[in-house]
Amino acid sequence: xxxxxxxxxxxxxxxxxxxxxxxxxxxxxxxxxxxxxxxxxxxxxxxxxxxxxxxxxxxxxxxxxxxxxxxxxxxxxxxxxxxxxxxxxxxxxxxxxxxxxxxxxxxxxxxxxxxxxxxxxxxxxxxxxxxxxxxxxxxxxxxxxxxxxxxxxxxxxxxxxxxxxxxxxxxxxxxxxxxxxxxxxxxxxxxxxxxxxxxxxxxxxxxxxxxxxxxxxxxxxxxxxxxxxxxxxxxxxxxxxxxxxxxxxxxxxxxxxxxxxxxxxxxxxxxxxxxxxxxxxxxxxxxxxxxxxxxxxxxxxxxxxxxxxxxxxxxxxxxxxxxxxxxxxxxxxxxxxxxxxxxxxxxxxxxxxxxxxxxxxxxxxxxxxxxxxxxxxxxxxxxxxxxxxxxxxxxxxxxxxxxxxxxxxxxxxxxxxxxx
Length: 420
Ligand code: GLV
Ligand code: MN
Ligand code: MN
Description:
Layout: H1 14-26, H2 45-60, E1 63-67, E2 73-77, H3 80-83, E3 88-94, H4 107-123, E4 131-136, H5 149-155, H6 160-164, H7 174-180, H8 192-195, E5 198-206, H9 211-215, E6 219-225, E7 228-236, E8 240-241, H10 253-271, E9 274-283, E10 289-290, E11 293-301, H11 305-326, E12 329-338, E13 341-342, H12 345-354, E14 360-363, H13 368-374, E15 379-384, H14 400-417
Parallel strand pairs: 3-4, 3-5, 5-15, 6-14
Antiparallel strand pairs: 1-2, 2-4, 6-13, 6-15, 7-11, 7-12, 8-10, 9-11
Helix pairs in contact: 1-4, 4-14, 10-11
Bound molecules: glyoxylic acid (GLV) and manganese (II) ion (MN) (2 copies).
């Protein structure tokens, strides 16, 4: 569970020492010492520290830090002629986390991007195109509910008004949170002017399954992202006494919710898909009271879009059957739905070849790379082996040697993309 890569007794080259230094600096930020997990939510104190850290890394490399107004941090080469070429190669990931998340999901991609720049400098590689390190804002959507909010705002697939109206668990809107942080709400908007200057995006990420471990490979290349979505299910009923209300007199919304949970498991297994209820809110929340409402979030993912639609329909149909029996209500609201992504085939094939025939594999996890790819930016992803496949958990892990293999792979891909 220790997320700190070691250098295995070797003094290490500069980029390796930098990798370890950066990892050490990030290690305490937003970490819950009792679980070992991270709580790094958008615009929280931890997130601000992470943004400062990013700014420091950019400055240390002489990069020019910009913010796109949506909270996405972009570190450009200071050479104005190079930066102004209009064919920048973006590389990076995100620093925020899910509740009690692991150290690697996101930060590995950002740290590796900076370390890959260090390695390219060590190798004396001349970059003809500007390489820009990106730290995307609020990728996990853990606070406001919408995944990849930063990259969606940048590309225009999330409307500023809709984003600013999103509310966190305390009822604070994004607009209120940004204002309290002194940010300009008018700057929250799509930025085609920035995207027009980008010719490619590469995101390195810890693998969130056992694909590479099973293939005995340290690094792989992504082919596609499954279509997936988050759906809010609001079950409504009637609060009443747990001891005196006859079973047949109840309007208990928990039962339709339970039916939805079991249906999710059943239908996802049948379809070779995934369906998860990981968050639920019960009101009024008394042990001795029938709930008046249950709000739950379904995370559903499938190999293709038709299967995803069918999966969500089958789950809601079964839940509605139970709510009809009980006289309870059910509303289903899609909160963020992402279409299937196929990454740029030229980039994918070039990366796999550069990495000596690295495995090419799809993923069920969502990424900013998917959002940029949907927008038409030629995009690729590299995965670093995760020995257990565990992710979104403090037990998420990648071995130190594999992390450094990831940095070398990323540097190779960047050298290829940034050549004239
Ligand atoms: C992001 O990690 C997601 O797939 O939920
Ligand atoms: Mn994640
Ligand atoms: Mn991620």
